[in-house]
Amino acid sequence: MAAPVHPAWVTRWISGQWRQRKRPPNIRPTRPLVLANKVANRREQAGEATCITEMSVMMACWKQNDFNDAACAEEIRIFYDCVAKAEKERKDRNEDTLSPRGNLTSSKVNKLLRRFPQITHYV
């Protein structure tokens, strides 16, 4: 039986001749290989809701007492205390701290990039 007849390119590919004549590709980046001096503005993702249990207890009390504030004074006070405590914790958080996920916000990154711009030329 005769050997199968292949096109010339298949023969070169099988024998490895195509590797010998092939030069490495000439790579030219379309943009300079440096970081930009700013990042896109992204919204902060909403954090975890606070005081949900206190609010639900207060609303359940209102429902039971026909929305009478006097009967639910204790629950309302507990809810407002929780809200004040959460607001104080939110204000006490420092600007320089990381977000809950551990990343810097885009405004903080832009501020740092303005302070330390990327070097685009060599001396």
Structure in a nutshell:
The protein has 5 helices and no strands.
Which percent bin holds the helix content?
40-55%
Low-confidence stretches: none
Terminal Cα span: 70 Å
Q: Order of helices and strands, N to C?
A: HHHHH
Structural class by sheet pairing and helices: mainly alpha
Mean pLDDT over the residues: 80
* Number of distinct beta strands: 0
Proportion of residues in extended strands:
under 5%
Label this structure with key terms:
0% strand; elongated; single chain; 5 helices; 123 residues; 46% helix; mainly alpha
Description:
This protein is an all-alpha fold and 123 residues long. The protein has helices at 8-15, 17-21, 52-64, 73-92, 106-115. The longest helix is centred in the last third of the chain and has 20 residues, at 73-92. It is elongated and about 100 Å long. The model has no long low-confidence stretch (mean pLDDT 80).
